[in-house]
Amino acid sequence: MEIHRPATPLEPNDDIYTTLGVKRRINAAGTLTRLGGALMAPEVIGAMAAAAGYSVDIGELQAAASRTIARITGAEAGIVTTGAAAALTLAAAASMTRWDITKMAALPHADGFAHEILLPRTHHTGYAHALRASGARLVDISHNDRGAGAGVRGIEPWDIEAAITSKTAAFAFAANPTSIGDLPTVVSVCKARGIPVIVDAAAQLPPKSNLRRLFELGADLVAFSGGKAIGGPQASGILAGRRDLVGAALVQQLDMDVAPETWTPPDLIDRAALKGVPHHGLGRGFKAGKEEIAGLLVALERFANADDEAANAALEARLERIAEMLGGLPGIGTQLLSARETGRVPQLRLVIDPAVADIDALGLSRTLLSADMPVHLSERFAHQGILIIDPQALRAEDEEELVAAVKRAVLA
Ligand SMILES: *Cc1c(COP(=O)(O)O)cnc(C)c1O
Question: What average pLDDT score do residues 29-42 get?
Fold first, then answer.
């Protein structure tokens, strides 16, 4: 059953930012958290607005979210979190505590029980802090020469076996198109030892096939961002996977100032497995509101049902037009990459020859950022002299001003 879409979607406007004296920005850098993430479709904004006007039981709403997430991803269960980082912290917590309320109460002090998370060195991103925030200790493992670009061998079974001890609570895996080839090996070793595999797939959408693929490969828990490509509220994310672990995460996120006599948890929470009623858990600060949950679910439905080919063709046409308008600028080459080439969405690369343009990539970016209407391009490859126009959060009506700003910066 599809979820209900509001009859009166709301159109965005920027009055609120003008009133607050905050500059609106042209975002051609992607769905970055520091720029507020995705731009939500009117339908998603409408769902949040509609949800805001009524009271509901958040546990019941999360259980409904779980059914929608399960249907779309193929996972057993799923909850809405306040982002993929929060999902990782909750995943780490649930892997350590399972249904043990004494352990839930102890977190983030986890010395008394299994609290180590195995993490391949080559998967140790800046987001690993989210795992540690649970109280877990990260154990760097594996040579993984392929992941390090040093050789042909990836993560090997003996690598993992050698690291597993009675203190091991989980295995953490950072998914990307290169690393994903190692996931079956990790899953086969960890499954046999009863160790949950937590996958950070925050930004691995698109392609939307990854919504299901990671579960098909055997991941126990997967974190997705809601405010990136899914197009949901910026402060939303998904933790999906094994029903018992998702339930143990949920109970550590919910408001638990409840009377045990009247508490009616959703089915997702196995009350019989709990020795008592837990207090506010480690995830209490990550509470997802009814608005985020409603918005995320409508966004997820839209994302899952979208015609990617048509959407990418439209984005490519926009980027082609931008490339044409930028044609002939001294020292600035353009290179359009299709969605197939990037594995995600199409992008337009500005290849800067500083000798001719008289400005280098970061200099150009700095000039664009200091404009009255600041323009953000992706600086991901700036060290190679490339700035990227990522169209995911670029409003069509901002394209001409983006082009004018680049021209002013280069011709100045
Ligand atoms: C964006 C990102 C996160 C954090 O996601 P939020 O939804 O912003 O919390 C975690 N891991 C990776 C790899 C990311 O790209």
Answer: 95
pLDDT at 385 over 70: yes
Of residues 245 and 16, more confidence is placed in 245
Give residue 138's Cα distance to chain centre: 21
Closest protein CA for atom 5 of ligand 1: 84
Q: Is the CB of 292 under 6 A from ligand 1?
A: no
Q: How far is the CA of 37 from the centre of ligand 1 (A)?
A: 11
Sign of the dihedral defined by the CA atoms of residues 70, 34, 171, 273, in that order:
negative
Under 8 Å between Cβ of 269 and 249 = no
Distance 323 CA to ligand 1 centre (A): 30
Sign of CA dihedral 363, 367, 368, 370: positive
Task: Give the strand pairing for 347-352 and 332-337.
Answer: antiparallel
- The answer to whether the beta carbons of residues 227 and 233 sit under 8 Å apart is yes
Instruction: Give 249 Cα–ligand 1 centroid separation in angstroms.
Output: 18
Task: Tell how far the Cα of 83 is from the centroid of ligand 1, in angstroms.
Answer: 7
Residue 239 pLDDT > 70, yes or no?
yes
Q: For ligand 1, is residue 72 a contact (CB within 6 Å)?
A: no
Interior angle at CA 89, CA 85 and CA 90, nearest 5: 115
pLDDT of residue 7: 66
Q: Which domains does the chain have, with CATH numbers?
A: 16-30+307-411 (3.90.1150.180), 42-305 (3.40.640.10)
Rounded distance from Cα 226 to ligand 1 centre (Å): 9
Residue carrying structure tokens 């409508």: 298
What pTM, to 2 d.p., does this model score?
A: 0.95
CA distance 160 to 120: 9
Q: Residue 403: which pLDDT band, with cuts at 50, 70 and 90?
A: very high
For residue 237 and ligand 1, the question of a CB distance below 6 A is answered with: yes
Pocket test of ligand 1: the residue of 31, 225, 228 to mutate, having most ligand atoms within 8 Å of its CB, is: 225
Q: How far is Cα 374 from Cα 266, in angstroms, rounded to an integer? A: 46
Q: Give the count of beta carbons closer than 10 Å to the beta carbon of residue 22.
A: 10
| CB of 196 sitting under 6 A from ligand 1 | no
**pLDDT surpassing 80 at residue 135:** yes
321-350 pLDDT, tens digit per residue, is 999 999 989 999 999 999 999 988 999 999
Residue located nearest, by CA, to atom 15 of ligand 1? 203
Ligand 1 and 252: CB distance under 6 A: no
Q: Whose CA is nearest to atom 12 of ligand 1?
A: 202
